[in-house]
Amino acid sequence: MLPARLRIALLFAAALAGICVVRTQAQDGNKLKALIQDRLATAVELEKVATVRFMNGQGSVQELMDARRIAFEAELEASTTAKARMAALEKYQAKMKEAESLAKARFEAGQAPQALLLTAKAERLRIEIAIEKAKMAKAPKAAGEAKGQAYQATIKAHESVRVFAQVSGTLKKQTLDIGDRVQRGQMLAVLDVPTLEASLKHGRAVLDLAKARMLESRAKLVAANAEVEAAKAGIGQAEAKAKTAEANTRLHAAQLERMKKLFADRVTDQKTVDEAKGKFEVAEQTERAAKAQWAMVKADLVAVQARLDQVKADLVAREAGINVAAASLEKLNVQQSFANVTAPFDGIITQRGYQVGDFIRSAENRGNDPAVFTIQRTDHLRVLVPIPERDVPFITPGMAADVEIDAFPKKTWASKIARVAGVIDRKTGTMLVEIEIPNPAGNIIPGMTGRATIHLERR
What we know:
- This protein has six helices and twelve strands.
- The chain starts with a helix and ends with a strand.
- By secondary structure, the chain is of the alpha+beta class.
- Helix 3 packs antiparallel against helix 4 and helix 5 (about 195-265) runs antiparallel to helix 6 (about 270-335).
- It is elongated, with a radius of gyration of 51 Å.
């Protein structure tokens, strides 16, 4: 039997050897990953160079195909999951379709042999076969991958609205009932609103009166403009007369001075001087009268201009009155349109609140009155799924989900999580999740129940 110290030493050496082996394996694994990534980077660079050469007319389709195949093989080797490998296959498939199109174009143009076209096609078919095989494979899912979890689900209409009347009135016409399908904007009901009809008549009369007053103001404006123009013409005439009279006065004043000098020199007699003086006085009076008339005409122009400004102001006010009356009438027309109850979107009537002849109060005064109609959109449905708190951390929008409805036991609707509430209801201990499914035929009815299988990603 070996001594105790020797046994301890041997065990310690064995442990060290084991650690070295583990470290060596880890180092080898890291080296392999580095080599794979280096090859992928080199292949990607090769594909870029081949693409640039081809675009510049320096490379051939065959060179481009070879570079793409090398890049695809490197990417496939670097893929660590089935999803990544499928993505690499689909990417390469798209590239080979493009290469096949290029080869076909070159072949038809007589620039490449048919063998190149057949090679591209064969490679494209090889990848498509690989993709189909991958889709058909039913390998068991590894631990940590998607796992289906079923939850109770309730179907709800994508949109649901209660339609109320926006004006009060008596239900005059209603041709639709529950179960009827309607389209956006379709007439659902017509209300009789007598007070609104009377208001409309009054509004139209007010607008007509405002228009008549505006026409009257426009006529007054034309007359006022004519008066101003006449006054301006009268000023010109009065000014001319005043200046003529002033010149005449100066003339007779000069003649009077000459007569006075001649009388002083005893060349003429006193009678001649008196006659000249009389003419001067008459001319002076005529000048004063002409200037007074000129001033009067100027004052008349100011008054006429003031009347013109007033007429213009009245016209602006009456045009504004037309706008006010038109706006009031437009408001009444809008209110009258509210007497027609229409559908807000395509859907189905699920409830009816009144019969023809019933009085319906407007939405703002309805109190606890029922809606005229309830309309639901059912061509697209929401599936409400309460998720228990334990599974909430694994739920994210976009997760795959399969919906089964009790009324259709042999059918499954494949969908995804559309939205997540993001809060847990403490009363139920669940978080609400919504899934959307199509319902073009309208076979699924809101309120139905079923199950939603969500493929959780448990981390």
